[in-house]
Specification:
This protein has about 475 residues and is an alpha/beta fold. It has three domains: about 110 residues; about 270 residues, P-loop containing nucleotide triphosphate hydrolases (Rossmann fold, 3-Layer(aba) Sandwich); about 80 residues, no CATH class. It contains 16 helices and 23 strands. The strands form four sheets. The chain has a twelve-stranded mixed sheet with strand order 9-8-23-22-21-10-20-19-11-18-12-13. Strand 15 and strand 16 form a beta hairpin. The two termini are about 30 Å apart. Bound molecules: adenosine-5'-diphosphate and magnesium ion. The site of magnesium ion has 2 residues, from helix 3.
């Protein structure tokens, strides 16, 4: 144990316990430290580092070169024979403090083999030989938020999580993949999972052999699907609803191609038509409908929605390559599928057979596009409904964002597992840490200094914010 020694408890209070470094030890921000006492150990996390104790004159300290630093720590948990509990005590003054080891923390791995692997336990930047996994049912039905600025490893973590979900084989996951990075066309990806061929699906507007065309029949689109994703005036919404009532499945065609007896003010229809062309690339030519991206069609794609939702219902992963169809078309497709999945699962609940169905989770990047304050005002925003009450129906979302502050608090609190990766924006960190179920108030500096792949998992299912490191997907999946 001796070489594992970090320091000595030298004062402070519950919010900030001072640990004076032992000679030769080097404490890092984010380190997990443990103070063994009789029958119980107190686990602390290093929030900050300083010279000397508050009030001490550092000029005097300078006279002793290499004066040990003082780590400011926050007790996060107690570990005893009964397991891990949130810390409600502080360690004894003068006690020796150690860098925690896998041995200390072994009761952390609750989900075991069955769980969804998120990464390895991490103490500061040291990766420990302990896998952190969470129960997939809890994780997916209670919604997940993945927050970080770009390039910090969000997609890498998600690939790792979905790989785990595929291994379990009992979670339906819809990936709206605007960067076409999950399937792994040219690199390693989810297609390389041994069970990929067992009913998991990849749709693309440029499908490689063996995969399907991303094409939706216009008749599968309803006015509701647009609400909550596109800016529409009340008059425009009314017009769409009216056309739908009047023409049923042919309503969009009628709007795009025009009809002899327009029921609505022509100007409104013209604006809608222009919006459809700009956002979805749909327009009429010679009495036919053209879709620039081929993602929507008058004739093809009538069974796309049902085959996707059926795969999800069977616990499969469905990846939609939306990289060539634009933002709004992606959201529209997401909205169509989410509506269908949610509606089926509501029916199953009504019929009393929901518990035979696997959870369905919908991964959406730049989630404020559908979950911002403004979007939530829309009555028929399916993503908002899922965030609010999807849990009861086993439908969840995995919301990915760089800007948490755009998501209202009421929704943030519903996203019950938050995985926080590096973020250099102080205000964003504040907002995020405040919305966590575990007390992460002292983690600001730790989050600011998170490196690529490093994260903190805070959840109603964890006793404290668990620091993890997610390995590079290619190495993990390649078994290296
Ligand atoms: N744990 C890791 N170790 C090494 N490289 C990583 C790790 N996580 C991500 N990367 C690499 O960093 C880059 C950005 O990661 P990515 O997951 O795309 O970030 P984000 O989705 O947050 O923008 C990618 O090239 C990825 O391979
Ligand atoms: Mg990404």
């Amino acid at each position: 144990m001796v070489d594992n020694r970090a320091g000595v408890v030298a004062g402070g209070s519950y919010e900030s316990i001072y640990v004076q470094e032992s000679p030769g030890s080097r404490i890092e921000i984010g380190d997990l430290l443990v103070v063994p006492e009789d029958g119980i150990s107190i686990l602390m996390k290093v929030a900050s580092l300083r010279y000397g104790f508050p009030g001490e004159d550092t000029r005097l300290l300078l006279e002793h070169k290499d004066e040990p630093a003082v780590a400011i720590c926050k007790p996060i948990a107690t570990i005893s024979g009964d397991g891990i509990a949130p810390a409600k005590i502080i360690p004894g003054l003068g006690r020796e403090v150690f860098f925690s080891t896998v041995e200390d923390l072994k009761s952390l791995t609750t989900a075991g083999q069955k769980g969804i692997y998120l990464g390895n336990l991490r103490s500061g930047s040291k990766v420990l030989d302990m896998k952190i996994a969470m129960d997939g049912f809890d994780l997916f039905t209670h919604h997940v938020l993945i927050a970080a600025t770009t390039g910090r490893g969000k997609s890498n973590l998600l690939k790792t999580m979905i790989w785990g979900a595929m291994s379990a084989g009992s979670y339906g996951i819809l990936v709206l993949d605007s960067h076409d990075e999950y399937y792994g066309r040219k690199t390693m990806g989810l297609k390389d999972h041994g069970s990929w061929g067992n009913g998991n699906l990849y749709f693309s507007t440029k499908p490689p052999p063996g995969s399907s065309s991303l094409v939706f029949n216009l008749s599968t689109i309803e006015p509701d699907h647009f609400f909550g994703i596109m800016d529409l005036t009340d008059a425009q919404k009314q017009a769409m609803i009216l056309y739908h009532r009047e023409h049923g499945e042919k309503w969009l065609e009628k709007i795009v191609l025009g009809s002899d007896q327009e029921q609505v003010d022509n100007r409104t229809i013209r604006v809608i038509r222009r919006k459809l062309r700009l956002s979805l690339g749909i327009y009429g030519k010679g009495g036919r409908i053209i879709c620039e991206t081929n993602a929507f069609s008058q004739s093809a794609g009538s069974s796309t929605v049902s085959s996707i939702v059926s795969a999800l219902e069977s616990g499969k992963v469905v990846i939609l390559d939306t990289s060539r169809i634009g933002d709004e078309a992606e959201l529209l497709i997401g909205s169509i599928i989410a509506t269908e999945a949610f509606s089926r699962y509501r029916d199953y609940k009504g019929e009393g057979i929901l518990d035979q169905k696997p959870p369905i989770s919908i991964l959406i990047e730049e989630a404020p596009r559908v979950l911002s304050e403004e979007r939530l005002q829309e009555e028929n925003n399916v993503f908002a409904s899922i965030a609010r009450e999807g849990r009861k129906f086993r439908v969840g979302i995995i919301a990915v964002t760089q800007i948490v502050s755009l998501i209202p608090k009421t929704i943030l609190t519903n996203l019950n597992t938050k995985i926080i990766l590096g973020n250099e924006m102080a205000l964003e960190r504040r907002m995020l840490l405040d919305s966590c179920s575990n007390d992460l108030s002292s983690e600001d500096a730790a989050v600011a200094s998170l490196d690529r792949g490093e994260a903190i998992v805070s959840s109603i299912f964890t006793k404290f914010g668990i620091p993890i490191y997610t390995p590079l997907f290619e190495e993990f999946a390649g078994g290296k």
